[in-house]
Amino acid sequence: MNILIILSHPNPESFNHALAQKACQAVIQSGGTPWFHDLHAEGFDPILPTEELNRIDILPPLIQQHTQELSAADGIILIHPNWWSAPPAMMAGWRDRCIRAGLAYRFETDSHGNGYPVGMLHARFLLLINTLNTPINVETDCLGNPIYSHWQKIVFGLCGIKDVDQKLIGPVITSSQ
Q1: Under 8 Å CB-to-CB from 152, ≥6 apart: which residues?
Q2: Cβ–Cβ under 8 Å, residues 2 and 68
Q3: Which of 20, 35, 103, 138 is the most exposed place for a label (fewest CB within 10 A)?
Q4: Which helix (H) or strand (E) covers residue 70, if one does?
Q5: What are phi and psi of 105, to 5 degrees?
Q6: Which helix (H) or strand (E) holds 17?
């Protein structure tokens, strides 16, 4: 099993990095192969340039690698903090540049002329691992867990992934070493 693991946190000493390392180890221990990307360490450019819009054929090498691995992965793990009830800008830029129409999803038209998405990803599951400083019950009960809704309903649901799980860890700001 090939598992794509995407990490977005600027501090290499962060708890998110430790979680990513453990996720890679767990994949290996289960007999799988982790395809790991630390977006900050790779110098991933989160800005989608105009010339890249609506393209799936000619992409920069790093974006091409990410899209190929995303398309072929059996499972996906995203690891990032919750910043203002949203993924960090680097992760949002990865989403914008790598989860592409024609590769991750396509639109078809029904007999009434209405468009609808068709998921194209091979992955059977998505695991979200998110750290936060908000108490978990506030995040889920009061705020409605916007990170989960974003990834599950808006992004990967459109791409055909139905099995989405999330591990919320926090509040980390008050935790000890």
Answers
A1: 126, 128, 164, 166
A2: no
A3: 138
A4: helix 61-72
A5: -160, 165
A6: helix 15-29
